[in-house]
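User: Please predict the structure of the protein below. I'd like the answer in structure-token form so I can feed it into my own downstream comparison script.

Assistant: Understood. Taking the following sequence of 253 residues as input:
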Amino acid sequence: MIGIVGGVGPYAGLDLARKVFDNTIARSDQEHLPLVLLSEPGSIPDRTAFLLGEERNHPGPSLAEIVLKLESVGATVVGIPCNTAHAPEIWQVMQKNLRAWGSRVAILHMIEETVRFIVSRFPETRRVGVLSTFGTWRTELYPNALARLGLEAVVPDEELARKVHAAIYDVQFGIKAFSNPVTQQAREEVVQAIRRLKSQGAEVVILGCTELPLAVPEQEIAGCPLIDPTNVLARALIHAVAPEKLVPLAENK
């Protein structure tokens, strides 16, 4: 059974579940894969705020507790639709807690899955743009993962990184505050950032925060392919439990 840690943010968890359904070969209710989504946003401290020193409570133990709950109801593989949660400062503490509690569930690593997807799907690509929260930007989570596979990250300067962060977090117009529908201002900020990275030589751009695909659901902008880590994670979860149920990429919308 697929397990999803929801609440990070809430719409990101819902988006991952929807993309699992979208990527599953099924012609009836009964042909879909079993899936459990547990959304407890109030129990998980903000990951970016923690990395920036603005939140004292560590999100790792809370994430581990939710993974354990998913495992207790039958999940055998789990996805966490939050890029920032995969920062080593958070991920390693979560894993340490799970080991201490005797957990045996498999947790897929969204960042590693995304980078491997780029290598396999865009083998000629060498320069990869990355948009994310400011916390993910500061920890160089994607640049480090890309470098391990010989790819160069094209990242925003600090001014642009803060604009993208505001498009996600601003309480007046950000995607977390207005997820459905996303405000025009938030979308425009993200689209402008994509265009900027393309002008700096990015051949593809990773939407490295799970709120960003809510604002920009297109597969490309201005001829630049967009990589949606939520969709990549959804496909990896399906492949982990029932690879024969995975919609071929050529058919995937």
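That's the full token string. The mean pLDDT is 96.
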